[in-house]
Amino acid sequence: MLEESALGDGWRVWNADDERAILAYRPDVFDSAAFPPECLPTIYVARGRRTRRPEGPRNLPPDAPWFVTLYLEPDVNRDPDAYDTRAAACEGAIDLSRRFADGAVDYRGLYQVPRESYFEKLDELTGR
Q: pTM surpassing 0.70?
């Protein structure tokens, strides 16, 4: 359901299966050489909320919502968007990837302590 050709410029399908998908923004730029590896912008598509702790088998109810979350770092994220179905969540992720690539997502507002060189590179790549 997540075709790379449908994503915003620079976004790649990093991993995708029936339970979740991870999209990565410009892994060629945010490759851990110039920026810390945790600065790779990612979009997570998952049923139920993503947690930091590994969990055993997930016993989610059949009607558990799907969430789409943009992460700039593990502790820096945009509030997730909720969807009723995986298909709707994938469409939401595609839309978010396009808006991010077009410079329409305020990633600076997500930070309490800004990373100026990181912002400068994101600004350059998204045309902000």
A: yes
